[in-house]
Amino acid sequence: MSKTALVTDSTAYLPPERVRQYGVYVVPLYLHFGEKTYRDGVDLDADTFYRLLKSAPRLPTTSQPSTGDFLQLYRHLSLEADAIISIHISSGISGTVASALAARQVLLGEMQSPPQIYVVDSRITSCGLALLVSAASRAIAGGKPAVEVVREVEDLASRLFTVFVVDTLEYLHKGGRIGGAAALVGSVLQVKPLLYFRDGRIDVLEKARTAKRAKRRMLEIVAERADGRPIHAAIVHAQAPEEAERIRRYLADHFDCRELFSVEFSPAIATHVGPGTVGVAFYSVEGGEA
Q1: Would you give the DSSP letter of residue 239?
Q2: Number of structural domains in the chain
């Protein structure tokens, strides 16, 4: 029987129990506080990150895993796996996919009978990426061939919608990940934009005058796009567990959630969105899907 290995990166920020449940291998991104470098989610957890952020003279920077990081893992997995499915943060905001593709090329060149290696650009990150990894894990456990799993994940990625509300645009602006939201920086209006991923990059979906209105509108958008269908959903937050739990309860009470869980922003993503950010990723169940 063929064996398929599943890989993602630390921006999905899956808690240890879900990493074990999904049987997924996680490649960490890097954070740089001055001269010190940390592996996202390995040397640096969320609590420690926010503590360092408060005292840091300037915002930390982030970088993708190296080609060597991926190559080391792919070589290890190749000892037993017939196929490797590697699902990662959007290439529109990170070079992680490029590193994975480069490692794939090296491995294919050095092995006589390499496994099939599929590198999937999720065009998303965080809780949306976590939902895709969850779906891939279920498909692998169900015995689907790797090529079918990849096809399913790519279909879900095209249907997945993520919307989030930041407390301030400062972090996205300074980190260079602000995309179409750049026009709002320095605005005299104290707007709270609803942000989303458009073509793999962060853009403005709508604007609200207060955080409360923005979060209420975020849930209205879920209802509009779900249109009465069951959903798979995940909530994400940056140092806002109470708000994340409020949103989770609302979704559980008002929607037919086939899957519903919460994760934190990984430090590598929290660096760019800042404390207080909350968001929802979801996709609707179609046809005969579970």
Answers
A1: S
A2: 2
